[in-house]
Structure formats: structure tokens, C-alpha cells
Amino acid sequence: MKFKKIILAAIIVIAAQSTYAQYLGDALRFSQLQNSNTARFEALGGSKTAIGGDLSSLYGNPAGIGMFTKSEFSFTPSLRLRSNDISLSNTSSTSSNIDLNNVGVVFNTKTYKTKDLDKGLISLSFGIGYQKKGSFRNDFNYGLTTNQNGLGDLFAETATSENQSQANLGSQVNGAAYDSFLINDRGTNTTVYDPITSLTADQLQLVNRTGGSSSVDFSLGANISNQFFLGGSIGLSSFRYSSIEKTNEVGLFRQPGTTNDFDYDVDYTRNFDTNGSGINLKLGAIVRPSKEFRLGVSIESPTWYSVTDNYSETLYNNLDPIEGTDSYPFDYSLRTPLKFNGGLAYFFGSKGFISADIGYEDYSTINFSSSDSQTDITTNRNIKSQFKNVSNYNIGTEYKVTDKFLLRAGYQSLGNPYKTLNNSDYTVNSYSAGFGYRFGTYYLDMAYVNSSDFSTYSNYVLTGNNQPTTNLNTKRNNVSLTFGVRF
């Protein structure tokens, strides 16, 4: 097992970003998860810290459920549409899925009073809800031509890093690369390997990612004199991330000791299967100094995750019965950043409001810990050097056209978590709009959200950082509906 860990340290490669080690990429991926919203607050750009009175408060500022005057139930399904523009091949791909954003209920109870009904503790509200905090789903594929940066170059590096002769290679994948004539030892030094594939080859990259993160939240809110609203919640979170990332490479290799060239056709596949579960806490307050103004603050503790990671890689020769697979099961703990949010809302009488939030979190405070001290030191050092603090912004407005029909619009900006990375901006901007309709004790809300984000991708990394890498511009269009009832 110890030898396998040494091999793992030598050959494990990136999970999602072209210059990041697997655990560094995962640490950020599982720390960027955002709390869910009903369709109403989706349309408002997620601006909810100072508003309250909506099931979104279950997942954001729990003080908001203190504003409920009745009990309420709602659920929110959504349709997610994705398109990827791939720079390396100048192509695009699309995918879609249906999700349940959230479902929750709040029970409101008035406190028993015999004197002033508008002073002191007026009511308590208890809520429980399920939320989908993030979806990892994405599919894309593209073709390219290598230039001295193909699979032969990769396995020459990983086999050389073992410092073993061919008969003693610990990695089955490196052994399969040798047997498939992608690499050969130098002869004069049998522990150093060189690629024997042609300088150029045709590659097809195929990526299929699935999974997501969810949480069950238990919240308690209090209404004090209709001016102060306090709340707290406990969230039980979990996630599942799966990714199959395959490189098919077709080209020519030269048989050692001859001038004869032969075809080769191999598949190099990396399989990621990661599961985690954790817990977090939220505290919040909303102050209503006047009928027009509301001020809100909330703090969300880190989520303390226990994570099981099952990573494996396989090299399969499509022309000969040669296959090699290496597996690297690994358990670790992950602590995500502390989050602060502040919000301000101004109400235009009974006709509507405008609301704005600002949030702060420091991704350099992510903490990774396991039974492997060297992996911990390296990962945490890279977290501090690569990530930084961010400010997130939300703004939204709602206008009541009639007593039953409402219009909404919003904007959200999630800050770039990287200090420097390819001089690219990884800020995520979202634009939203929607409407609401009230009929008796029932209501229906709809939201449309358009967002785009930038990332880079490569299925493997070379020491010279010249592996085939593409830019991905992912556009997302989400439509969500919330159906609710007050009782």
C-alpha cells in the first residue's frame, strides 16, 4: 500500500483545471457550492439576506423564516440547459437535465399573549427543507492533433518517475503503455523511458460528468416586536461527483531497433468517484427600522466534510488484448470557507422593493487533511498560494403589477477565486427574470437564469505544461418553477 501511495504521488493528475492537482481542484469544487433558491429569489438574482418571508430563507438567512405569519409549503423543480464552446476544436456541445431545486415547509406558531400583542416575542417558525446546492453535470467532446504532447509523452514521464526497469514497474498502466509500444526504455538506462510514438497523433477527448450536492436544513426563526427577526439553522450536506474522462489516441509507433512503423489505437480513461458528507451552521438577523427599510446579516460556518475518493485510470489497447488499471482509494477531510453576507432592502410601499446583497468568503482558508501528511502539506500550501478571498454581489427587484401578478429581475456576480491563472477571469455573472402569480392561498413563481463561466480542461498534465489544453466557455440557461401553498 505504501508503494501505491508513492506511485499515486508521482502520476496522479488534474481533476478539472489544467494546472491543478486532483485534490486542489476537488477542494475548490466542493467549496464553491451555493445555497438554493425558490423561483422567486432565483428571479431576484439570489438577493435574499434582508427580505425574508420566503422558503429561500431556509437555505440562506434563517432569520427570514421569522417573518412568516402563516405556515407554508413549496417545491421547486428546474430544467437545466448547458452548452460548451470548445476553443481547441472550435466546436460546441449541449446537454440538459431536470432537477429538484428544493422542497420545504415552514410551520408558524403565535406565542400566547394577554397584553401587548405587538411587543416581545410574537411568533416562532420552524422549517425543514431539502435543497440541491449544485449540479456537476456536464458532457462534452472534441478532437485534436498532438504535437510532441501525446500519450507516449505522458507515460514516458510517469514510467520514468517510478525509477524501475520494465519488469518491475508498479503501475499497470505504465506496463500496458510499454507493452503497447507507446514507450521504451533507453537500453543504456533501463529505468528511463522515451516515447516511441510519432510526433503527431489524432486524439478524441470525451468527458461525462454527473452528480451534485444536496443538503437537508433545519431552521428556527423568531419574530420580536415585528422589528427584529433572529434565526439559526443546521445543514446536513452531502455530495457525489463522478466523472469519466477518456482520451482515444490513434497514430503510428516505430518498433524498437527497426525502421518499421505500425498503427496503434489506445484509450486512456480516468474515473473519478467521490462522495462526501458534512455539517454546517447558519445564524442570521434581520432588522426592520421602518416600513421602508430592512437590513440583514448572516454567517454560515464552514462545512466539515468527510470524503471518500475512488480514483482509477485504465489504458486499453484497441488492437491487441492489452489492458492495465491502477486504483487509488483515498479518504480525507475537507473544511470549506466561512461565509458572511449582508443585505439591504428598500420597499416602495406595497408596490414592490429593491434588494442588494454582498457576500464574502476566503478560499485560501480551505483546509485539507488526511492520513498522508505529505499530501496534506502540498495541497494546503497550494490552496494558500493559488486561491484568494472573493466578494459576491446580488441585486434584485420586484414590482407588483396587480394584487395577483408580480414581475421580477436580478443580477448576480460570483467572484474569481484564483490569484492568477492564465490571466483569465473566472468570475461568474448571472442575469435573471421572472414572474409570480397569487391565487388565494396558492402561488406559482417562474424564473429564468442565464449565466456563463470559463474553465480550462486537459485529461493529463506534462511536466513542461504543454499537454493538449482547451478553453471551455459554458453557457447555462435554467428555468425553475415554484408551486406553494399557505395554510
From TrEMBL:
Molecular functions per Gene Ontology: long-chain fatty acid transporting porin activity
Membership in a protein family: Belongs to the OmpP1/FadL family.
Signal peptide: 1-21
Keywords linked to the UniProt accession: Cell outer membrane, Membrane, Signal, Transmembrane, Transmembrane beta strand
Name of the protein: Hemin receptor
Organism annotation: Pedobacter psychrophilus
PANTHER family the UniProt entry points to: OUTER MEMBRANE PROTEIN NMB0088-RELATED
InterPro entries: OMPP1/FadL/TodX
Record membrane topology: Multi-pass membrane protein
Subcellular location(s) of the protein: Cell outer membrane
Record's keyword annotation contains Membrane: yes
